[in-house]
Write a sequence for this structure.
């Protein structure tokens, strides 16, 4: 259990999951390691794992065939869940990639095991509900940022909300996330000082 202390503490704070409830699910959680550039999940594959990032950084992106370039959607780092939520829940192929931008270590649980825990334990079922709410909020906030904020406002929000991303992610990935070119991002950064 000591090797999963970070996970136990997080789940307790995140959803109030008790240590006794965690122990019911403990045997199902296992560790996955990734080298920079390896994939947690790939487009056209079913996402079979929910992950909790112990260390490292991931990006979620799709390949825009018309523009022939990657389009970054999200970045996730330590202390966050990682999953292709729709693919995981519905067990259908994913529409995008989840790639490690750094060497990473993730605690993971298989879909079938988590589903079983939901069915037999109220603590885990509550955690699943809160997890679904969290990913809904991520998606809604991202959509609202793209609809209601200009690029400069989105960059400032990224600086404020996730400053570690700006320190750890290559600028061309940040530009893609903002929906602009690297040159435009350089101009914004220069203008903001």
């Amino acid at each position: 259990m000591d090797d999963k202390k970070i996970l136990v503490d997080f789940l307790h704070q995140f959803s109030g999951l008790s240590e006794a409830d965690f122990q019911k699910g403990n045997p199902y959680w296992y560790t996955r390691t990734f080298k920079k550039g390896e994939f947690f999940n790939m487009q056209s594959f079913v996402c079979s794992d929910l992950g909790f990032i112990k260390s490292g950084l991931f990006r979620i992106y799709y390949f825009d065939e018309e523009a022939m370039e990657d389009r970054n959607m999200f970045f996730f780092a330590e202390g966050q869940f990682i999953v292709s939520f729709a693919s995981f829940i519905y067990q259908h192929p994913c529409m995008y990639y989840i790639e490690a931008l750094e060497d990473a270590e993730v605690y993971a649980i298989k879909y079938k095991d988590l589903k079983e825990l939901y069915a037999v334990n109220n603590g885990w079922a509550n955690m699943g509900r809160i997890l679904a709410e969290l990913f809904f909020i991520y998606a809604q906030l991202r959509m609202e940022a793209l609809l209601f904020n200009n690029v400069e406002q989105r960059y400032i929000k990224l600086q404020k909300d996730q400053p570690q991303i700006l320190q750890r992610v290559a600028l061309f990935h940040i530009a893609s996330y903002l929906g602009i070119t690297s040159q435009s991002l350089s101009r914004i950064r220069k203008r903001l000082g």
